[in-house]
Amino acid sequence: MPVEPLKSREEWLASLPRIYAAAGCVLRDESGRILLVKAGYREHWQFPGGTIDLGEGPAECAARELLEETGIVRAAGELLAISWTHPSDELDHPAEHFLFDFGTVPDGTPVTVPAGELDDHRWVEDAAALELLGPARSMRLRAALEAKADGRVRIVTTQVSGF
Length: 163
Fold this sequence. Notes:
Layout: H1 9-15, E1 20-29, E2 34-38, E3 49-51, H2 58-70, E4 79-85, E5 95-105, E6 120-124, H3 126-132, H4 134-150, E7 154-158
Parallel strand pairs: 1-5, 4-7
Antiparallel strand pairs: 1-3, 2-6, 4-5
């Protein structure tokens, strides 16, 4: 059996799988409700968040996206959950999604969603959030709720992207 020659560093790096990376926020109001946002191009509601820019870390991304999507300025708190999504018919690469605790803001905190990117926002109880988020994001929320309860970060592995 012939031995394959070693690849150059550039060839080896080019052969590695790429991933899509994103970060999101679990932000509550004083009544305990979670902030969700709705993009017109998606069936389900989602957490404020988005894809990580080059040179940006996951926590920075989550804080930037919260500001861009809601007008709320907050720093990311503890990492609650990481979701790893395998490639599928929907995504040609794996996806990794970081979900951070953004704490609590006062009831009635103003939310400004950007026209053209998001259509609406809602503050909802956990049970309603699990329904509105759809399969992929509800798995992330369940994991985040468990992590918040015991302080241990959760890893969710799935075929359902929600990306």
